[in-house]
Design goal:
About 55% of the residues lie in helices and about 0% in strands. The chain contains eight helices and no strands. The longest helix has 15 residues. This is Mitochondrial nucleoid factor 1. Its main location: mitochondrion. Keywords: Mitochondrion, Mitochondrion nucleoid, Transit peptide.
Length: about 140
């Protein structure tokens, strides 16, 4: 029975698309990793909770087949912002999010990074240390 569950999960993983624009955040890549962890021994893996395994597969299969999209159709393909699906994909890509994160850094953080020591030996002396030393 474990062999058939394993084959069903493998088939689902093959069909699930991988979004290359979401490096490290893609559901398809995460799903593949979790299936590999859960079925370490392949078809010979012993499943402790077969009902939970079957329920997880059914839930993922419904998501993959767009069951809920068809069951509850939207009247329009738009959102409150008016952006299209392609525009959302562009905004939510890993590269764009990294650029936005860099833009949102404050001036103080940018200066700290610019003048931060490159190696541990180059630790700058704090202004407190320079004031506390006796002058000769």
């Amino acid at each position: 029975m474990a062999a058939s569950r394993y084959r069903r999960f493998l088939k689902l993983c093959e069909e699930w698309p991988v979004d290359e624009t979401k490096r490290g955040r893609d559901l398809g890549a995460y799903l593949r990793k979790r299936v590999a962890q859960a079925f370490r021994e392949g078809e010979n893996t012993q499943i402790a909770e077969p009902e939970a395994c079957d329920q997880m597969y059914e839930s993922l299969a419904r998501l993959h087949s767009n069951y809920y999209k068809h069951k509850y159709p939207r009247p329009r393909d738009t959102s409150f912002s008016g952006l299209s699906l392609q525009e959302y994909k562009l905004i939510l890509s890993t590269d764009t999010l990294e650029e936005l994160k860099e833009m949102n850094k404050g001036m103080w953080k940018k200066l700290q990074e610019k003048f931060a020591p490159k190696s541990p030996e180059e630790k700058p002396k704090s202004w407190i240390q320079s004031l506390s030393r006796p002058r000769t």
